[in-house]
Amino acid sequence: MGIMTATGPDTGASIAAIGSLDELYAFLSDHAYEALWTMENALTRQPVTTMRPYIWRYRQVRDLIMRAGDLISVAEADRRVLAFRNPGFSGRELARATDTLWAAVQMVLPGEAAPPHRHTPSALRFIIEGEGAYTIVDGARVQMEAGDFLITPNWSWHEHGHDGAGAVIWLDGLDSPMVSTLRQMFAEFEGAPQSKTHVYSDVLRSGYVEPSWMDRAVFSTLVWKLDDTLRAIEELRGEQGDPYDDVIVEYRNPQTGGPALPTMSAFMQLLRPGAKTWAHRQTSSTVYHVVRGTGYSVLDGQRFEWEPGDTFAVPTWVSHAHANPTSGDALLFSFSDEPAVRALGLYREQKAA
Ligand SMILES: [Fe+2]
Ligand SMILES: [Fe+2]
What we know:
CATH class: Mainly Beta
Number of domains: 1
Structural class: alpha+beta
Number of helices: 8
Bound molecules: fe (ii) ion
Number of strands: 23
Oligomer: single chain
């Protein structure tokens, strides 16, 4: 095949020969143009998404991931991850729970190990059930038990293993749809640092004190224990609380003083017995996970009943209110793309009047 030679663009006479708008549009589409005035709804008055409010029921999720455990090993699967694919998402790319957030359950069985890798998407994990599994982040090992919240920042090496008994299941949250939309996806599978078997304490991990001869990254694995979070919430139980979220606390990153990750924030909220919050909506999107209790959320007018282990998606600009009609506590874990949306100057909130 010969070298392609660029011929000069059609100009002058061929353009003068365009006799109608239809011919103009045909010419434009043949030559890599588009007329803005033919586009409908390029600018909408409010954020528009095809993503829908949706709930994945743990009764089914658990059965499915356990069944997957019978049928495929981590050695074969690399990671045994069942992603929540929003039914409003029709793209062929990576699944997503909202436009910007990946949510999934991951399971490891005793003796299994998911090999190390690192990637530009950041990850967070909330342990749903089990104990005895561990994660190694940049060589530092952290045990994982039910209720723990931990992060794997952008480009940190991570691998998972399990030397306890019984299945360990956790919720994964990643900003990968966002990272992929920005075409910033990189990953590496070889060259992970030698892992330490020592488990560093929170005081070293938080950066409160730091050994000057060691790489800071060794301590970057942050884990927040459920008991600590619950103690903080308990102290606040008697306070007024937030009318939209009741007694809500954000997981703050002690190394930065900011949100858990640059792109994602995470929260735990107590809906006290009888709590019924007011509705609001934000340009950020959120994934909720029910830790304890039963109740319901009203998402764009539709009522979704929930129970422990259920995960539900609140896409951008979806109005939401939560209720706990029972006499016991309800606890919701959630993560959102709010820090990324804020950093871009795009954050808006509308509160119900
Ligand atoms: Fe990963
Ligand atoms: Fe909210």
